[in-house]
Design brief:
This protein is of the alpha/beta class. Helices cover about 45% and strands about 10% of the residues. It has helices spanning about 10-15, 25-35, 45-60, 80-85, 120-130, 160-170, 175-190, 205-225, 230-235, 255-265, 315-330, 335-345, 350-355, 360-370, 385-395, 405-410, 415-430, 440-450, 470-475, 495, 500, 510-520, 530-535; strands at about 20, 40-45, 70-75, 90-95, 105-110, 110-115, 140, 195-200, 240, 245-250, 275, 280, 285-290, 295, 315.
């Protein structure tokens, strides 16, 4: 049996006999050089990092364009380090899942260290401080999920743990953003050393969100005299510190049992999938789709690795923003949400299965190409039509990416403003377009309202995915009955005129009544959702 560890991966022949590409660079040399002169720390040690970001640096190592790796730090789920990094010497296996059912397998060994980013792990935290005091450090990047940057509750109040961190200063931070601020302060105290803090999370204006949260904590410390006022100037002077914006796109779903079997059958031992106490699903391997995109604002005051040689697109902030809006507002995310809503209603278990449904495939084509594309600003670095075609023809139908409509339906209320509201607004702002002419985006909004009833198209109860607005939204549907469209009269108004949800009042856009009409058709009886889709798409 093959064991995944530092010594074993040096025996390239045995891995390649098992169909796994082994690293060509000198691991010991990479680890030693990274330890001495670190250039890159990454916070968020999960699957997107291991299956995408770490692979970029590996490519540079393979091609002799760098001799240093990445240091991974985990600030939230420490079991990732304890159960997946440490036992396997920070090494993983990337398995790319192709739509035709074929696999490619390669060892990812570009991670020099795996650390728990928390003061409770004294040795690891001191090591992080040591790294942040090194002049060689060029960037700290992040995949900590969108929630990781939040320092406020939904009410607007500061989170209790952040409030404590603000009171206590940088010595013992608990929240991820407080830890970043504390390490930035340590770098400031080490000689005002330059660095780029690079959010690679899948959310709009991610660099701004990171900067805003770190600055808020630092300012609270400065106001209390816990840090120097000059620290705030340091954080906001791009000669020293930058917060580049980025757009990232790659699906790295939960590790799949089928992939575990493939690797185990190839003679690789201990490929078990771990579910941590914080509900992270992680394994020694990462399964992922092939297509990937990373677009980065090129602002690095201390230099950076030549990641353009690994396919990263470096550009200006405006272009990053355009790419993000193209993806989130037209070419990918609205299509995902449409499939999530109707997938739940029609009882599909995977996105790939949905794409075999002619009606649903036609729906996402109409939303992407017909309604979304006229208002897309071409960012220049990625062609929107080609991107959308790849999404619809290659990515969404891939049966080996086990993504579910139920997972994607999570937090839909938080996504509508960006995924659909922006397009509607763009129509309103154009003299040659009429928002009231839209057919398919309002069909999805009506579908989402129908979804909120918690009853599928067969008339059976279904579990709604987690969403912070559920308790507010569900009561509006309490007196609406399937088979009695008249019971919906006037019930959707508080939802459809809610600017917090959509970024605008749908009635003022000429779409409120249309959504109401679609909704009434969808509650006419059993199978009314499919019949409505058939009526407008068949």
């Amino acid at each position: 049996m093959l064991a995944l560890n530092k010594e074993n991966v040096k025996n390239r022949g045995q891995w390649e006999d098992a169909g796994v590409v082994a690293p060509k660079f000198d691991l010991d040399n990479m680890i030693a050089k990274t330890k001495e002169e670190p250039i890159w720390v990454h916070f968020g040690a999960g699957n997107i990092f291991r299956g995408f970001v770490a692979v970029l640096q590996q490519q540079l190592l393979e091609e002799g364009l760098s001799d240093k790796g990445i240091i991974a730090a985990e600030t939230f789920d420490f079991e990732i380090i304890d159960k997946i990094y440490d036992p396997y010497d920070n090494i993983g296996i990337l398995v790319i899942l192709y739509p035709d059912g074929s696999f490619s397998k390669k060892i990812v060994a570009s991670i020099a260290e795996g650390l728990v980013g928390d003061p409770s792990r004294t040795e690891d935290w001191e090591r992080l401080k040591e790294i942040f005091a090194k002049p060689s450090l060029q960037m700290a990047s992040f995949t900590i999920t969108e929630k990781g940057y939040n320092i406020n509750l939904l009410s607007g109040d500061i989170m209790p743990d952040v409030k404590r961190d603000m009171e206590n200063g940088p010595s013992n931070p608990t929240h991820a953003m407080s830890k970043v601020a504390a390490l930035a302060y340590h770098r400031y105290k080490s000689g005002k050393l330059p660095i780029a803090f690079v959010s690679m999370d899948n959310c709009a204006e991610n660099g701004k969100r990171l900067s805003t949260s770190v600055n808020a904590i630092a300012k609270a410390w400065a106001d209390k005299g816990l840090v120097e006022k000059d620290f705030i100037d340091y954080l906001n002077d791009e000669k020293y510190v930058t917060f580049p914006w980025t757009m990232i796109d790659k699906i790295t779903p939960r590790p799949a049992e089928e992939v575990k079997k493939v690797l185990s059958d190839a003679g690789i031992e201990k490929m078990d999938i771990v579910r941590t106490s914080k509900n992270t699903y992680i394994a020694p391997f990462i399964n992922a789709e092939g297509p990937q995109y990373l677009v980065v604002e090129d602002k690095f005051p201390n230099g950076r690795p030549p990641l353009e040689k690994a396919g990263v697109i470096f550009t200006d902030r405006n272009t990053v923003d355009r790419v993000e809006k193209m993806k989130v507002g037209t070419c990918l995310n609205p299509l995902h949400t449409a499939l999530a809503v109707f997938g739940c209603l029609l009882d599909y278990k995977t996105i790939a299965e949905e794409m075999k449904d002619d009606l649903l495939r036609k729906l996402v084509e109409k939303i992407g190409f017909e309604e979304g594309m006229p208002v897309v600003i071409n960012p220049g670095v990625i062609d929107p039509v080609a991107f959308a075609k790849e999404v619809i023809e290659v990515r969404l139908p891939n049966p080996y990416i086990p993504d579910t409509p139920q997972r994607i339906a999570t937090d839909t209320s938080q996504k509508l403003k960006i995924r659909f509201g922006q397009t509607i607004k763009a129509y309103q702002q154009r003299s040659d377009l009429d928002a009231a002419s839209l057919k398919y985006i309002p069909l999805v909004i009506a579908g989402w309202c129908r979804y909120l009833m918690g009853i599928n198209d067969a008339g059976e109860e279904m579990t709604l995915s987690p969403d912070p607005m559920l308790e507010t939204l569900k009561p509006h549907f309490a007196d609406i009955n399937i088979g009695a469209p008249e019971t919906a009269e006037g019930k959707l108004k508080p939802i459809l005129n809610n600017e917090e949800l959509f970024g605008l009042n749908l009635y003022e856009a000429g779409l409120g009544e249309k959504v109401e009409g679609y909704f009434k058709e969808m509650i006419a009886g059993k199978n009314a959702v499919r019949n409505t889709l058939k009526k407008y798409l068949g």
